[in-house]
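Predicting holo structure, adenosine-5'-diphosphate bound.
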Amino acid sequence: MTSLFQDIEFLKGVGKARGEKYRKLNITTPFELLYHIPRKYLDYRCHIPISQTEINEYSVLKLTVTDKLPSLRINGGMTVYKAAATDGFDSILIVFYNNMYAFNALSENDTYYMYGKITGNFVRREISAPQFVRSSENVLIQPIYHLTAGLSANMVRKNIRQAVEIMHAFPFETLPQYVIESYSLCTLNFALTNIHFPESIEASQSARRRLAFDELLYLQLGMSMLKSNHRLRTGCIMNSKIASVQDFFGSLPFELTDAQKNAVSDVVSDLCREVPMNRLLQGDVGCGKTVVAAAACWFAAKNGMQSALMAPTEILASQHFETISRFLEPFGMKTALLTGSMSAKVKKSIKDDIASGEVCVIIGTHAIIQKDIDYKCLALVITDEQHRFGVAQRAALAQKGNFPHKLVMSATPIPRTLALMIYGDLDISAINQLPKGRKPVATYAVTGKMRSRAFNYVRKIIGEGRQAYIVCPMIDDSQSELLAVKSYAENASEELLHGCSLGILHGKMSSAEKDSVMNDFKDGKIQALVCTTVVEVGVDVPNAAVIVIENADRFGLSQLHQLRGRVGRGIWESSCILITDNPSEECRKRMKIMCRISDGFKISEEDLKLRGPGDFFGNRQHGLPPLKIADSACDMELMEQTKLCAADILKKDPTLSLAEHRSLKIETLRMFSDNIVS
Ligand code: ADP
Ligand code: MG
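Done. Tokens:
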């Protein structure tokens, strides 16, 4: 084996069968094996005396083998090997099952560092199937890897050791010297050696920093290059002299917040430029993003151009349609709603109006990006709650028209670091201010025992003329969503919400049914809406002043915050009651965060810490390459540094064509190769 890029099978001691096992871990070459980063390290120097061990815990001990005992065959053909050992004060039994190889490696009177699970009782302790090294050896910090059946920790370590040796015979480096120096990084070979076999904890830390830096730098480079790809000429340059958004502001029933005004002016100035806008409008629930979108549509219409607004659900699309058409009607601008569930005939007539330019704002679900829809002059494309859309849908919409401007609205307040990663290719306008007079939603977490008291309160609020959401318990797969909501609503109407008019809403209903329920709720005909998380995004009924969330522990913090955002949208004091019987410490922590924090940004940061970025959106729809080493929650500083570094590099060499940037380009392309990013 002389190359890091040969098949992993050719590594000594691997062969076909183990090669397959490695493939399961997505490792096909020794090079990829080098990037199989340890999960953590075992530090044999942190050993404790036997007397301090706890049953069922993993511990590191320093033991001298006193007596190797005869092996014992037990039921089922298993052979048990035992050896007596001491730490100088107490004694313990070392036990191996079927592992003669490990047992034979122990010598009487020799001293070892051992790591394993402690079993037994107060009188007699055992350490079972420990990993160990001789105390005379100087490798006292051992890497622990993710394994798969059939690959032992020792085997993996041995193979990685071989890969490291090959690397030392053919050293390589991906970063130009000037980057290594200005960010005080270690060399790549040092990093790849010490991430696996650290000379010291400090060495493993600087190795990790270097590898995380690489990863984030490729990410930033890739994102910036994508961003510059977007810098085409749009066919829809607008003119700020044609209309002043002040006229639009003046027609509104409320005064915009400064943050909203700033966002509108960012958008309008983008619309007047030659490069297509590519902007993220980010803001906590209830901050008023819709009116900003409406202002953009208004400005486009004044310029004689069409806008399309795409929402993830029909409920949301029809709500936006109502709101936006109300804003635009006074100006004689026509708005159309187009959803998948409309009849072919209705669709046809709307499509005609779109093609003729009769309507200037088209609102809908993904129906508005179907191939058969021709826009007369589509200039602005807005997507709401964008993380719900697949990358492909975003891209399809962008291809309509003549390089239209794009505005993406997100109600999930994304921590800055993650926004940098996911939307590195977008400009950002943040609305960091709520409309005047909003009061934070008082939030309480209670157990099921308090349910009837909680509902007494809900009935009282309803009695005062307000309305309520009851988010139904999440259900097992065995039960249908429909059943759960129905039976819950039935029980509730008999007991908890006796005397109130109830409606139910869930994802399995047809859109016509959903619309009619939502309309009844908006009109106040329904006092309490028993629903699933279909109300999670965007729904806006300002008279709703209380939301009860059953089984609150089953939701992520950001999702709870979204749900809570359904109330507190008007002038009323509002509250959110979280019900959970989950006694775990983790759940307690989450509920406490919800009760204490009302700022969505802070909550999403906490959420990110608790769940990690992979889970943040519940899926990988954002099209971001997965990070193996860097951690978006903890590596904020590194993220900022790599952003600067990427900007520097691209300023010098926008296409990464210089010889010193060759490897950078290869690695960046490699990172993005499996991921289409629109
Ligand atoms: P979100 O940002 O969550 O999408 P919406 O756009 O749905 O928020 O706005 C929430 C509610 O606040 C709506 O009822 C909207 O009419 C109202 N609203 C928006 N901006 C203001 C403002 N500046 N002053 C008062 N109410 C506002
Ligand atoms: Mg919204």
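The chain has a mean pLDDT of 86.
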